[in-house]
């Protein structure tokens, strides 16, 4: 199976080189697609230096459109038959790739979520952020009759075929609930596996905000009613 790793990027000059090295070090990615969402902090200069390495492609947004839009750009450009979304901020560890890929490789899953709440090692911080994530997951489970433990995880891996006929419209952090809603409505097989998690706090550059939680709830409700 050929793996495409999609990395949405926005103002990540402190971490972008390191995350690319970690992804490449796995030896599992057939291609790595970096989508820069109009960074203004010097990230683009680092991406220009990285571009041209074997298996690595850089795509640029000429205006800031949001993480969801960057993910969609990457998905459209990806050529692999397995797609993996990787955040650029070092919160998620590419050394978890083998565990994430295993259910798909064994033919028991179409989609795999890396769960931060299934007992994997994690940094202890940001209690209320964790509670918000768990409440959004609870809302997902109630609306879609499922038992996810971490709907908002950034680690989502899936067969390319999952996207067939699926129209994604997310612009910001609403990608997670939109994708989850549409996967669940189509009854694809989802597995969760525990991952390590090293969250950064807002002083370190975390971008998601409370308003994004409200947007996620609305997205879950909206796509329960429409496609």
Kindly describe this structure.
The chain has 227 residues and is an alpha/beta fold. It has a single domain (3-225), classed as Alpha-Beta Complex (Spore Coat Polysaccharide Biosynthesis Protein SpsA, Chain A), CATH 3.90.550. Helix content is 37%, strand content 17%. The chain has helices spanning 16-25, 43-50, 67-77, 97-105, 127-144, 175-185, 210-225; strands spanning 3-9, 29-36, 56-60, 82-85, 111-115, 156-159, 190-194. The longest helix is centred in the middle third of the chain and has 18 residues, at 127-144. The radius of gyration is 16 Å and the shape is globular. The two termini are 30 Å apart. The relative contact order is 0.17. The model has no long low-confidence stretch (mean pLDDT 93).
Structure summary:
By secondary structure, the chain is an alpha/beta fold.
The helical percent reads: 25-40%
The radius of gyration over CA amounts to: 16 Å
Query: Low-confidence stretches at least 5 residues in length (pLDDT < 50)?
Result: none
- Order of strands in the sheet with most strands: 3-2-1-4-6-5-7
The helix/strand class is alpha/beta
Q: Termini, distance in Å?
A: 30 Å
Order of helices and strands: EHEHEHEHEHEHEH
Total helix count? 7
Mean pLDDT: 93
Which helices and strands appear, and what pairs or packs with what?
Blueprint lengths: L2 E7 L6 H10 L3 E8 L6 H8 L5 E5 L6 H11 L4 E4 L11 H9 L5 E5 L11 H18 L11 E4 L15 H11 L4 E5 L15 H16 L2
